[in-house]
Amino acid sequence: MTVVYAMTRNLYPHFLPALRSLLEHNSPEKVYILAEDDNLPYDLPDACEVVNVSGQTWFQPDGPNMRSMFTYMAMVRACYAYLFPDLDRVLQLDIDTIVCDDLSPVWETDLTGKWFAACPEYLAHYNPFGNDKYYNIGVCVYNLEQMRRDNIVPALIDVLNNRKMMCVEQDAINLLGVPDKVTDIPVRYNESFCCGTTDNPAVVHYAGQPNWFANKSMPRAAYMDKYR
Length: 228
Known about the structure:
Layout: E1 2-6, H1 12-25, E2 30-35, E3 48-52, H2 71-75, H3 80-83, E4 89-93, E5 97-99, H4 104-107, E6 116-120, E7 135-143, H5 144-150, H6 153-162, H7 168-177, E8 182-184, E9 203-205, H8 221-227
Parallel strand pairs: 1-2, 1-4, 2-3, 6-8
Antiparallel strand pairs: 4-7, 5-9, 6-7
Helix pairs in contact: 6-7
């Protein structure tokens, strides 16, 4: 299992509960941390490797999505097939997630002919492109081999450089990859206000929750409390 997190410098501390929860329930071979520095100011486990992507050249400062709260640190998530040329797949996790179980079943999802595996947003009612489904990629397995075979990354970069997107790379993926190139994963691997909840979460995702890192009153705050 190879896991990827991406974050801007101001979010470094908020990432630690996510990492702790992941490592308590899983033993990934590698955890890549896409960051704005060569190192993070923490004693990280040996499995972790910090990758400084601040010098990226795919997305220019005057691009339509560079003034969003996400900036290029979110958009580079469309470029994993370039960033990790030797990998066939990666599991992307947002930093506002708490892992509660073994993620091997989602990691081993059959991705034959698909670019991604993710959970549809059943509850958020955000679907700007009129597809049958809109996918949340806060928990997402990327089939990098298939993406390279289909040469999809240039198209994703082009969209992000030329079209304003509210949810940035997630919107670009939904625009170009749905419905034929995404396969569904169960809700329990991305439990959130937009995807739904179960009685047995594997990943609790605080997508859309204000001040999620410190908010004691948000739904399922106890999962964050355990690792904060």
